[in-house]
Structure formats: C-alpha cells, structure tokens
Amino acid sequence: MKLLKDKIAQEGKVLSENVLKVDTFLNHQIDPELMQAIGEEFATRYKDEGITKIVTIESSGIAPSMFAGLTLGVPVVFARKRKSLTLTDNLYTSKVHSFTKNETNDISISQNFLSSDDVVLIIDDFLANGQAVLGLLDIVEQANAKTAGVGIVIEKGFQTGGGIIRERGIRVDSLANIKSLANGKVEFFEEAST
Ligand code: 5GP
C-alpha cells in the first residue's frame, strides 16, 4: 500500500536492525486518515469472506480495526493484555510473549463476544515473530470460530512470524512488508505479500 509505505519511509525511525518506531502515526500519535485508508483496504480485501467480527489486541491494533469494522459493518473485539476488574470470568485466554517488551502476558477475550458462529478477521499493527497473532488464533480456535485471515499493517518479513502463520495455511495480508532494517534504512519487499 503506497500511502503507508511512503509514510513509513518519511516518518519511521529505525531503532535497530529489528525494531521500527512508528509512533507519529500508529503506536502513539495516530493518523486517522491513514488508519481509515488502511481499514478500508482490509475491508475491501475481505469483503466477500463473510466476516462477522474483527479480532485485534490492545492497543495499537484497535485504530485500524475500527475502520475495517466500520466499513464491513461488523463489531471489533480487542483482546485485553491485563486483568480487568470487570472482566472476571468466562474468558478465552492465551499466553503471548511480547517482542518489544520481552515479557509474557496472558491475553483474554470474553466468551460473550466470540462464538462458533463467527468468521473472524484478525488485525494487528506489526507482525514480527508471530506470537501476538498465534495467541489470537488460539483464542479464535478455543471459541470454535473460523479465521478467514490475518490483516497486518506492517510485517517485518525478515522475521519468522509471517512464515509460521502462512505455513499453517492461514491467509495473511500485510499492507507493507519490510525486507530489511539494516544500516538504519527501511527496505521493502516489492509487493506487500498476501
Ligand atoms: P510478534 O508477536 O509478531 O513477535 O510481535 C508483534 C507485536 O510486537 C506487535 O503487536 C507490536 O506491538 C510489537 N512489535 C513487533 N515488532 C515491532 C516493531 O518493529 N516496532 C513496533 N513499534 N512494534 C513492534
């Protein structure tokens, strides 16, 4: 997606060979117009898949998911990373090791919001080693729901996550796919992979 790749090229900061900072438009400050374009792109790609629910993870997956949900006319459910006083029982739970924070957390979704009738589009901001998406896939499986695919804003294609998930036969649509962050520069694969 050219708009997104241009934004990454202009505003992304390469923190190391493995980490890209995009807090001017995705991870801290949010660019609503860009999020809308991203959400609409996911919606267009999945419009014929019978999606009933978007599933994401707090917090940076929520913004693009909202616009995808708005366009597809379906609710957005986000997995919570921390225990909540109001989210007490009847949970689907999975363990996720965070790439950026180097800690393992339980993520949870209430059983009220996911069932065997659902066809799910999973959306997240980054795909690195795939742990966040694998945790969400685990939760969708616990609910006996169907996963139609995974929409990723920025995939780091040089890390393992994309391969692991595609090898399971799951469709992955990334709107920008990074080939390398070496030498402080962002290099993309020619086409965002699906
Ligand atoms: P994974 O679970 O695929 O290893 O990592 C995905 C999660 O880690 C994303 O939800 C995102 O929050 C975070 N993440 C992974 N790599 C990066 C990165 O290069 N930059 C930023 N800002 N977040 C990342």
TrEMBL record:
<comment type="function">
    <text>Converts the preformed base xanthine, a product of nucleic acid breakdown, to xanthosine 5'-monophosphate (XMP), so it can be reused for RNA or DNA synthesis.</text>
</comment>
<keyword id="KW-0963">Cytoplasm</keyword>
<keyword id="KW-0808">Transferase</keyword>
<keyword id="KW-0660">Purine salvage</keyword>
<dbReference type="InterPro" id="IPR010079">
    <property type="entry name" value="Xanthine_PRibTrfase"/>
</dbReference>
<feature type="binding site">
    <location>
        <position position="20"/>
    </location>
    <ligand>
        <name>xanthine</name>
    </ligand>
</feature>
<feature type="binding site">
    <location>
        <position position="156"/>
    </location>
    <ligand>
        <name>xanthine</name>
    </ligand>
</feature>
<protein>
    <recommendedName>
        <fullName>Xanthine phosphoribosyltransferase</fullName>
        <ecNumber>2.4.2.22</ecNumber>
    </recommendedName>
</protein>
<dbReference type="InterPro" id="IPR000836">
    <property type="entry name" value="PRTase_dom"/>
</dbReference>
<dbReference type="GO" id="GO:0000310">
    <property type="term" value="F:xanthine phosphoribosyltransferase activity"/>
</dbReference>
<feature type="binding site">
    <location>
        <position position="27"/>
    </location>
    <ligand>
        <name>xanthine</name>
    </ligand>
</feature>
<keyword id="KW-0328">Glycosyltransferase</keyword>
<comment type="subunit">
    <text>Homodimer.</text>
</comment>
<feature type="domain" description="Phosphoribosyltransferase">
    <location>
        <begin position="32"/>
        <end position="157"/>
    </location>
</feature>
<feature type="binding site">
    <location>
        <begin position="128"/>
        <end position="132"/>
    </location>
    <ligand>
        <name>5-phospho-alpha-D-ribose 1-diphosphate</name>
    </ligand>
</feature>
<comment type="similarity">
    <text>Belongs to the purine/pyrimidine phosphoribosyltransferase family. Xpt subfamily.</text>
</comment>
<dbReference type="InterPro" id="IPR050118">
    <property type="entry name" value="Pur/Pyrimidine_PRTase"/>
</dbReference>
<dbReference type="InterPro" id="IPR029057">
    <property type="entry name" value="PRTase-like"/>
</dbReference>
<comment type="pathway">
    <text>Purine metabolism; XMP biosynthesis via salvage pathway; XMP from xanthine: step 1/1.</text>
</comment>
<dbReference type="Pfam" id="PF00156">
    <property type="entry name" value="Pribosyltran"/>
</dbReference>
